[in-house]
């Protein structure tokens, strides 16, 4: 197994009074391992800088210190994504109790461009869905997506999200400034249990009837940034492959994905 990284950056050749500039390119040639590892790890004081770097590269907005201090207290609701032990993405969410509801708000979700379409975004979203399912007491999950971010909209629709509102002039200093609110409505465990019990025969006719019983931004409003997931344009994207069988565990969860794709260039190796 080997990886060769060649960097050609702004090379200028002068000849006959003419300068030619070549675009920066990263060329990775690798014999990819038979199995690639996608893992989710906790956000801690030791790797907080890596989260900041991911958000800086992926999202065209900046977040202040309070945002990151809150993320440190988010537990399972904030995770770094690793591809073969390299930090390549992150998801940050929080609990929102406005409008007399208990909702989960996805603030940021993004993946570095070379690592998209590898299922990493799917793993992060699936982890959040697993969190709310285990809790059982959320009314919905929601996020903001830029209106022209078609890739993100289609990505989230695959998980049951739908556009429920469009906010005009949501973003600052970003065009277009409007954002769609995408939401996935959930059924609380208590309500589901009540409905299930109501559908059962009465105890008089059946003796066994009773046996069944996530935000502070400097450049934009609270949200998951203009580009939560942008598969097509290279800003704040995430992998779009379906991974319904992805089994994400707590703390340092590991998913082994078979892949024949080439391993993309690695930005960092330390955690």
Automatic annotation (TrEMBL):
One GO cellular component term = NatA complex
| Coarse class of the protein's main subcellular location | cytoplasm
Write down the chemical reaction(s) this protein catalyses.
Answer: N-terminal L-methionyl-L-seryl-[protein] + acetyl-CoA = N-terminal N(alpha)-acetyl-L-methionyl-L-seryl-[protein] + CoA + H(+); N-terminal L-methionyl-L-phenylalanyl-[protein] + acetyl-CoA = N-terminal N(alpha)-acetyl-L-methionyl-L-phenylalanyl-[protein] + CoA + H(+); N-terminal L-methionyl-L-valyl-[protein] + acetyl-CoA = N-terminal N(alpha)-acetyl-L-methionyl-L-valyl-[protein] + CoA + H(+); N-terminal L-methionyl-L-threonyl-[protein] + acetyl-CoA = N-terminal N(alpha)-acetyl-L-methionyl-L-threonyl-[protein] + CoA + H(+)
Location of the N-acetyltransferase domain: 38-187
A Pfam family recorded for this sequence: Acetyltransf_1
**According to its UniProt record, where is this protein located?**
Cytoplasm
Keyword set, alphabetical order? Acyltransferase, Cytoplasm, Transferase
Region entry Disordered: which residue ranges? 193-271
Q: Which InterPro entries match?
A: Acyl_CoA_acyltransferase, GNAT_dom, N-term/lysine_N-AcTrnsfr
State any GO BP term from the record: mitotic sister chromatid cohesion
GO MF, one annotated term = protein N-terminal-methionine acetyltransferase activity
Polar residues bias spans: 248-263
The signal peptide stretch is none
E.C. number: 2.3.1.258
Q: Where is the composition biased (Low complexity)?
A: 193-209
Membrane-crossing residue ranges in chain numbering: none
Q: Which PANTHER family match?
A: N-ALPHA-ACETYLTRANSFERASE, N-ALPHA-ACETYLTRANSFERASE 50
The entry's protein name is N-terminal methionine N(alpha)-acetyltransferase NatE
């Amino acid at each position: 197994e080997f990886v060769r990284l060649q960097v050609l950056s702004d090379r200028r050749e002068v000849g006959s009074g003419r300068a030619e500039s070549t675009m920066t390119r990263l060329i990775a040639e690798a014999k990819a391992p038979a199995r690639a590892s996608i893992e989710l790890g906790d956000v801690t004081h030791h790797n907080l800088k890596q989260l900041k770097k991911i958000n800086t590269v992926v999202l065209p907005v900046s977040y202040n210190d309070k945002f990151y201090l809150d993320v440190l207290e988010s537990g399972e609701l904030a995770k770094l994504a690793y591809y073969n032990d390299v930090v390549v993405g992150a998801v940050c969410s929080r609990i929102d109790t406005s409008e007399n509801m208990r909702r989960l708000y996805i603030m940021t979700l993004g993946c570095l461009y070379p690592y998209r379409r590898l299922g990493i975004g799917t793993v992060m979203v699936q982890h959040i869905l697993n969190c709310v399912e285990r809790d059982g007491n959320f009314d919905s999950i929601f996020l903001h997506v830029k209106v022209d971010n078609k890739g993100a909209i289609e990505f989230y629709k695959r998980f049951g999200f739908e556009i429920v509102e469009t906010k005009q002039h949501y973003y600052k200093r970003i065009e277009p400034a409007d954002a769609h609110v995408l939401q996935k409505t959930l059924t609380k465990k208590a309500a589901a249990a009540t409905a299930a019990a109501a559908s059962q025969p009465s105890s008089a006719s059946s003796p066994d009837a009773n046996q069944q019983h996530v935000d502070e931004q400097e450049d934009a409003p609270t949200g998951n940034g203009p580009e939560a997931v942008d598969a097509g344009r290279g800003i704040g994207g995430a992998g779009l492959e379906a991974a319904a069988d992805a089994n994400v565990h707590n703390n340092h969860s590991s998913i082994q994905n078979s892949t024949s794709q080439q391993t993309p260039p690695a930005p960092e190796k330390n955690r």
